[in-house]
Amino acid sequence: MPGLTLSPPVSAVEPVTEMLHGVAVSDPYRWLEEQNSPRTRAWIAEQTRYARAYLDNIPGREQIEKRIREFLAVETYDSLQKAGGRYFFRKRLADQEQACIYVREAPDGRDQLLVDPSALGQGIHTAVKPLRASADGKLLLYEIKQGGERTGTFAIVDTQSCKTLPDILPRGYLRGFAFAPDAKSFVYVHEALDSERPFYRSAQRHILGTDFSEDREIFFAGEDPSLRLGLIADGKRIGFITSRFGKETRTSFHLIPFEGEGPAECVLEDADYSFVPVLANDRILALTNRDAPNFRIVELRLRSGEMPEWTQVIGEADARIHQWLVSGERIFVSYIRGSRTRVLLFDLAGRQLRVVAGSSVKTIRLAAGSQGSDEAFFETESFTEPIAITRYSALSGERSVWSRRNIPFDSAKFAHTRAWFRSKDGTSIPIFLAGRREILAENQQPVIMTSYGGYGVPMTPQFSVFVAFLMERGCLFALPQIRGGSDFGAAWHEAAKRCKRQTAYDDFLCAAEWLIQTGRTSAEKLAIFGGSNSGLLVAATMTQRPEFFRAVVCMVPMLDMLRYHLFDGAHVWQEEFGTAEDPKDFQALGAYSPYHQVRDAVRYPAVLMVSGDADRNCNPLHARKMTARLQAASRSERPIVLDYSPFRGHSPVLPLSQRVEALTDRMAFLCDQLGLGV
C-alpha cells in the first residue's frame, strides 16, 4: 500500500488544562484552533503534502478518476420553483464547472439562461442559486456563494432583461425575504458578516433603487446571540418568527400588514414546542408538535384582544410528518415510517383527497409548490436510481417527468433488501443492504456502512455516487436506521437525543457487530463513512470500537464535543446535544466526544479526514485537532490523512473538477484499504 512507509507530520503538543465541573480536561492541540495563525497554516501545508504523497500514488487512481467523472459530468436540475407562470431553476450542463440559473415560460418550454456564475468573473468557486421570485415572475432573488461557505451575497435579476439590479445585500446570512406585491420593494432579515452589531435582530423594508442606508426598520426582535429572526409573507401580511436557542428552543410569532404602520400583533409568545407557520389564502396554517409528537397541521384564527384559537386541520398520524407544502387550494403532506414514504393530498379543510405517491423502495421528497398554482414538484430516488423530478397537478392528478439525472449506472444489476438486528438494549433496528444481486446472497464481502442518528433525520433509500461506485466494485452497502432519526416517529428521535446520544452509537456499533457475526463481512473488510453529524457518528464509534473497522472516511465533522458550542453559530444545537456548561450534559458529552476518547498506543483504522477553511457549521478546528491526536496516538501501520481545502465548507457547491478530484481521493482511499479491484 503506497505511502505507508512515510511517517505523519509531528504536531506540537501544548496541553491546555481546564477544570470543568471539578474534572480536569486536557486539550493537547488547542493551538490548532487558531485557523489563520502562521503555525496552523504551516501545519495544514505539511499535512497536505503528507496526504498527497499517499493519495496521489494509489494504484488505479486514473481509472477511478475516469469513472467518477462519468458519474458526475451529467446534466443536473435542482432548486425548482414557479411564479407568475414561469419556472425558475438551476441547471448544470454535463461538463460545466458550476450550475447556472434558468427560466422557462412553459412546462415544456425552452430553457433560457438568466444567471451564469462564470460571467461574474470571480473564478470557478463562485456558485449561484435561485431563492425567491416575485409574484409576477419579473424579479428573481438569487444567492452568490464563494466555495462551500454557508453565507452568501444576495442579488436580484430582472428576468426580462437578464440584468442584475444594484440592490445587493452583502455577504452574510439571509434569514427571510419577501417581495412586495407590486415588486417595487422588499422586506428582509439579513445578518451581515461585517456588521458592527452582529446580534441585532431586525427586519427592514427596502425600496428598489434606493441606498440601503435609507431602509426602514419594521420589526425588532432583540439583540442577543441566542436569538434568530425569520420572516414569511403572503402579500397582505408579514409574519416574524423569533427563535431563542437554549436548553430548549422557544418560539414567538408576530404579524403586521405588508403595507402600513402600527405595532406587530403577537400571535404566539415563547412557545416551548415546534411551530412552523405558513400564510396562505388569508389563513395562518402551521406545522406543530404541540400535543402531537409526530406533528399535525393546525390553523390559528385571530381573535381581537385574545390569543388565537387553534383548530386542527390535519391530525397526527402514526408516521411523522416529514414535509408539507401549500399549493393553491391544496396541502401536500409527506410521511415517513420505517422504509415507506407516502405523500398525501388534502384540501384546506383537512379532507384527504388522494394518495399522490408512495413507496417502500424509493425516497419521495416534496421539492416545490406555489400558493398561486395547483402544481407541485417532487423528487424520487432509490439506492439504484438517481434523482428524477416529477411535475404534479393537484386538480387533475396528472403527472409528468420534469427531469431525470442520466447517470451511467446499470441499476438492473443491483438490488436491496432489509433485515433486522438487535441493539445493545434489545431494541430491534432495521438495516438496508444494497449491492450487486449476487453479492446480496454471499458472505465475507467488503462492506461500506453509514447512517446519521440525529435531528430526527430519517434514513431512506437515496442514490449516492459515493456508494454506487463502491457497489460496482463488489461492495455491499449497509444503512441501519439507527435511533436519533425519526424513522419510527418522534420516540425514535428522542431515544438518542442529548444525554441519550450514546444510544445512536450503540445502534451503529451493533449493526457492525451483526454484519461480522452473520458472516456478511469481517472487520478487515468493513469501512464506514459520514459527514457532519454523521461524521461525528463514525468518529465516535471508531474511537469506541476501533477493532471493528478497517477504514473510516470522516467528512466535515464536529469532534471536540466539549467546546463545539463556542464556535460560529453551533450554540443553536444545544437542544440536540447539550453543552459542557451543564454538569449532566458534560458527563454525557465527555463520555463519547471523539477527540477526548482517543487513546494512546491503540491500533486505529485507516482514517481519511475531510474539512476546509470555509466550514462555519462544523468548524474545521475539529478535523485539525482530531487528525493531530489520531496521528500521535495510533500504533497501526494504516494511514491517517487530512484532505483539507481552503474552499471546502458545509455547502456542496465546489466546482465539478474539484468534486471529481475530492471523490476520487475518497474512492482511491477505500479501494486501497478494502483491496477492491479497479
Short synopsis of the structure:
The protein is α+β, with helices and mostly antiparallel strands and 678 residues long. The protein is built from 11 helices and 38 strands.
Description:
The protein is α+β, with helices and mostly antiparallel strands and 678 residues long. It is 18% helix and 38% strand. The protein is built from eleven helices and 38 strands. The strands form eight sheets. Strands 7, 8, 9, 10, 11, 12, 13 and 14 form an eight-stranded antiparallel sheet that branches. An eight-stranded mixed sheet has the order 31-32-34-33-35-36-37-38, with helices on both faces. A hairpin with a 4-residue loop joins strand 9 (152-158) and strand 10 (163-164). The longest helix has 19 residues, at 656-674. The radius of gyration is 25 Å and the shape is globular. 45% of the residues are buried.
- Number of separate strands: 38
Mean pLDDT equals 95
- What percentage of the residues does DSSP assign to strands (E)? 35-45%
CA-based shape? globular
Distance linking N and C termini: 14 Å
Mind sketching the topology for me?
Layout: E1 16-20, E2 23-27, H1 38-55, H2 61-72, E3 76-83, E4 86-92, E5 100-104, E6 112-115, E7 126-133, E8 139-146, E9 152-158, E10 163-164, E11 169-179, E12 185-192, E13 200-207, E14 216-223, E15 227-233, E16 237-244, E17 250-257, E18 265-271, E19 275-280, E20 283-288, E21 296-303, E22 306-314, E23 320-327, E24 330-337, E25 340-347, E26 352-359, E27 363-369, E28 375-381, E29 388-393, E30 399-404, E31 414-422, E32 428-436, E33 447-449, H3 465-472, E34 476-480, H4 490-494, H5 502-517, E35 526-531, H6 533-544, E36 551-555, H7 574-577, H8 583-592, H9 594-597, E37 606-612, H10 621-633, E38 640-645, H11 656-674
Parallel strand pairs: 33-34, 33-35, 35-36, 36-37, 37-38
Antiparallel strand pairs: 1-2, 3-4, 4-5, 5-6, 7-8, 8-9, 9-10, 9-11, 11-12, 12-13, 13-14, 15-16, 16-17, 17-18, 19-20, 20-21, 21-22, 23-24, 24-25, 25-26, 27-28, 28-29, 29-30, 31-32, 32-34
